[in-house]
Write a structure and sequence with these properties.
Elements: E1 6-19, E2 22-35, E3 39-43, H1 50-58, E4 65-74, E5 77-78, H2 84-90, E6 95-98, H3 102-105, H4 112-124, H5 128-141, H6 147-150, H7 160-172, E7 178-182, H8 190-207, E8 210-215, H9 218-224, E9 227-232, E10 235-241, H10 242-247, H11 252-259, H12 266-271, H13 305-309, E11 314-318, E12 321-324, E13 331-332
Parallel strand pairs: 3-8, 3-9, 6-7, 7-8
Antiparallel strand pairs: 1-2, 1-4, 4-5, 9-10, 10-12, 11-12, 11-13
Length: 334
């Protein structure tokens, strides 16, 4: 159930933070697209702007942060101009978000059934009995055993993996057209991660929901994503089809992320040799202390004086694949 037209399109989005000494640009002219029924993986280190992009899309930016330019177009509607009432109608109903830590996202004093049912009653207008039945159906859909009985359990009575399943059930209860999954498996062991990913794929195939997967895990991207956008320091520095980027990473930062990903090499392991696992030297620059030219230049082995003094353009690498880098030799995009 895919469509070539973008269901959600972000165009030149900028977000700024007000401080006592002035404003700091947190997101700088970010552009993204997500097609119906597909998954876009957003990748990058902590502090690169991944979660801030999601909060801007939900119009839930923290105090002191605001969208200063750009558009967020959801199925033809520019929601950067939507009223607060319109956004309340869209959240949960059309756009849902799965947060990183389910224990802090779920209310500890209400049963999981009450929390799922409340979302359905608010957005779908169902009565109490029908909302409770929907909650049972959603718990079953995320493969929670004994859904009827667990409906009356509290969050602390569930394991981490089961709490994450509850969060997915809540996100899907109103059949949204877009789900934002912000590091949905960070605190889970690898077996539970695999189960959650399989569940997300299965539900997407059944409903045609678009997914934005925010992660630092390139393994998750390789498994789930149709398209990828790599973030660095408030920039989208590379984007394109997942297969193209994983096969032909064109920005030095993306290549560095891939070099940081462990790979199983049985030959070396058997011989006792070291694996080719490297780190990216340095740190992401602090907000308000961005370098003048390319923001990755201080950490880049390929950087020269031109990189350090001039902002790089977006360069076309392959069909629908671009990188923001002076060292990428291809067509400069307008």
């Amino acid at each position: 159930m895919t469509d070539t037209a973008p269901f959600l399109e972000i165009i030149d989005l900028s977000v700024e933070m007000k401080t006592e000494t002035g404003t700091i640009r947190v997101l700088d002219n970010v552009s993204l697209q997500i097609r119906r029924g597909t998954t876009l993986g957003i990748v990058g280190e902590s502090g690169c702007g991944k979660s801030m992009t999601a909060l801007a899309m939900m119009r839930l930016l923290p105090p002191g942060f605001e969208i200063t330019s750009g558009q967020i177009i959801l199925d033809g509607e520019d929601i950067t101009r939507a009223s607060d009432a319109r956004m309340r109608a869209l959240r949960g109903n059309d756009i849902s978000m799965i947060f990183q830590e389910p224990m802090t996202s779920l209310n500890p004093v209400f049963t999981v059934g009450d929390q799922i049912a409340e979302a359905v009653r608010q957005h779908q207008g169902l009565d109490k009995a029908k909302a409770e039945q929907r909650a049972i159906e959603m718990l079953k859909s995320v493969q929670i055993p004994g859904a009827e009985a667990r409906l009356h359990s509290y969050p602390h009575e569930f394991s981490g993996g089961m709490r994450q399943r509850v969060m997915i059930a809540m996100a899907l209860a109103c059949q949204p057209r877009l789900i934002i999954a912000d590091e949905p498996t960070t605190a889970l062991d690898v077996t539970v991660q695999a189960q959650i990913f399989a569940l997300m794929r299965e539900l997407q195939e059944e409903t045609g929901t678009a997914i934005m997967l925010i992660t630092h895990d390139l393994g998750a991207v390789a498994e789930l994503a149709d398209d990828v956008a790599v973030f660095y320091s408030g920039w989208r520095i590379e984007s394109g089809p997942a297969a193209s980027i994983l096969r032909n990473a064109s920005h030095p930062y993306t290549s560095g992320l891939m070099s940081c990903t462990p790979r199983l090499r049985l030959g070396k392991a058997a011989a006792g040799g070291a694996a080719d696992l490297r780190e990216i030297a340095g740190m992401v620059p602090q907000l308000g202390q961005m370098p003048q030219g390319c923001r990755f230049a201080p950490r880049c082995a390929l950087a020269d004086d031109h990189c350090r003094s001039a902002v790089p353009p977006d360069v076309g690498v392959a069909p629908a694949h671009s990188a923001k880098c002076w060292k990428t030799e291809a067509e400069v995009l307008a």
